[in-house]
Amino acid sequence: MTTPANTLRRFAGTGRGLVADSSALVFVVLGLLVAGSWALVGPSFLSYENILSIVQRSVALGIVAAGQTIVILVGSLDLSVAYLVSVTAVIASAIMQGDPALMLPAVAVCLAIGVIVGLTNGLIITKLRVNAFIATLGVALILRGVLNASVDNFTGSVPIEFQALAYASLGPVPYSIMLLAGVFAAGWFLLRYTRLGHHIYAVGGDEETARLSGIRSHRIIITSHVIVSLTAVLTGLFIVSRLRAGAPWVGPDGAYDLESIAAVVVGGTALAGGRGGVLGTLAGVFILALLDNVFNQLQVNPFIKDIVRGVIIVGAVAIYALGSRRRDG
Amino acid sequence: MSASTTAPSQADVPETPVVKPSSRARRAGRELLGSAPIFLILLVVLVAIAVRNPQGASPEYYLALLKRAAPLMLLAAGQIFVIVSGEFDLSVGALITAVVVGAAVITDGDPSLSYPAIGGLLVAGVAVGAINGVATTRLRVPSFLVTLGMALVISGGVLYNTGGAPSGTLPQNLRFFGREGIEGVPVIGELPYSVIVLVVLGSVCFWLMHRTNFGRQIFAVGGNARAAALSGTRVHAVKTLAFVISAVSAVVAGILVAGFGGLSNDAGAGYEFQAISAVVLGGAVLGGGRGSVLTAMAGALTLEALFTLLNLLRLPVELRFTVQGVIIIAAVAYASVRLRASA
């Protein structure tokens, strides 16, 4: 009972009312990292500008990671988000062509594509009984092939009005941060207070039991896939507003598929499903962004970052896994 | 309901998607159905290549295809051990890159260092596989994440050492495995060394998986780890050995890639997903318990043959991804629909 994980867990116990306890630990880790970074970098680390920059850097990954949390909670996962981000960025920019009047149609088309991709993933997984890894990898490859065969560079442009999403702010709070906060608030509310949210945990915990107790598990899985695809579309829209035009490489370059899964599991959500929550994921996203920020400020070789990132992902999950074994034993 | 209420029941569940243990009859049926389609598909693709190829179908042409496919076929032969044991290995692509770049850094074109370099890389491969296996089994981290983390560590290490652009040179006697062949063989002309390596190591893998006690233990572990453990199988050791085999196959594949691909920072990019696609095409089931070395290698050859066919049809090269996506979904859907029908 005296493992570091358990000590931390007990220490973090006060947060238990707000978040699922498997993800409470991540807030302690985040706190320790902030303290450590502050000690390493100096007082400028906690300046308003720097914190804002860390949070802003988290927006693109954070939105899609919120969706990825839901689909992992239901016991699935989505490897197609990176290419869906690219598809969205390219199509939004190609439709808008710098014309503000076309913003709404473009957004509507992108959301519709998100629904179609999510439905496709969900139906392949539930009705054709294809393993989620293969199903979403397959859809990712399909999107990749079609996208790369149709465009090979920046296409179209988005109007100034649309760029406001990434660059403008309401008072001191940038719209981008409001978007991030809104997505996580919605995800938190969905999982905690709605019937769908409770069913997501039930199906992710044990699909057979959930089905036998009257939950239409296929419908829940399909809905979760539509949700993650819609968050990927939102990330794509945010990125195209920041880049001012869409290019086919923006999704894979950001590695949003694997990075979002990494953020989810670092945030304490079990890859097997049924356990975790979006707030942990938000902390996971901040941890990844904060490491980026500190490494940049300390001018560490950027490639070391990948190594540290790999170790952190495995280390975090190992601590959760070992901690939960002790508790159960 | 809060997440914590479901926590205890989750703790001992294996981390990869669970496939329900099936009856012996089901499995026997699955093995028959699973192995036949891939050879049929392969035959169809090979015939289609012969029809579309302006030069006709010569033995040399197909041998060149086999030479190109050799690294992926070896990777599939290694990956199938990990998949049948119920895990994933996503680190092989990064490992191939590390082998190609590492061989150039160690030897820097000096032929006398080639064999020590190959030996050192094989040892490094064993170490990578052992770490993957130990982290998966002892730390209880899903292998998906362990091997993804390993891929990040390896590629970060490679980029750190090369500063983003690889330097050094690959000596000729190291490249010769992927490049050269025995000249003057009747009928086929040149017999590539890579094909010899493929046949020898493929046979070793086949023997290991289908003719040894270790092979039976892999199927037992992947089918039902707890039952295997209760009947005396050392589950952790068996899984770790599966990861070592996969990593060693990646090192050998990397040496072949160094031979015909040459030095590049993305020499191994995408190979991990291609290997899994190939294994799945060969009828293996993610989650473990089912698969075969022969059909996995046939899956890899089919994938490579399909890419060749797309070239012959003059389709945009990018569409190979779309085709790969469609066929892996179709293959798994076909397998699970047949499985349900036969149940």
Question: What's the story with the biggest beta sheet of chain B?
Answer: 2 strands, antiparallel
Radius of gyration of chain A: 20 Å
| Portion in helices of chain B | over 70%
Q: Compute the number of strand runs of chain A.
A: 2
**CATH-level-2 architecture of chain A:** Orthogonal Bundle
Largest sheet strand order of chain B: 1-2
- Fraction in helix of chain A: over 70%
Q: Assign the CATH class of chain A.
A: Mainly Alpha
Biggest sheet record of chain A: 2 strands, antiparallel
Q: Beta-sheet strand percentage of chain A?
A: under 5%
Strand order in space, largest sheet of chain A: 1-2
Residue fraction in strands of chain B: under 5%
> Number of helical segments of chain B?
14
The string of secondary-structure elements of chain A, in order, is: HHHHHHHEEHHHHHHHH
Rounded mean pLDDT score of chain A: 88
Low-confidence stretches of chain B: 1-21
N→C terminal distance of chain B: 35 Å
CATH topology of chain A: ABC transporter involved in vitamin B12 uptake, BtuC
Q: Measured on Cα atoms, how large is the radius of gyration of chain B?
A: 20 Å
- Assign an overall shape of chain B: globular
Task: Please state the structural category of chain A.
Answer: mainly alpha
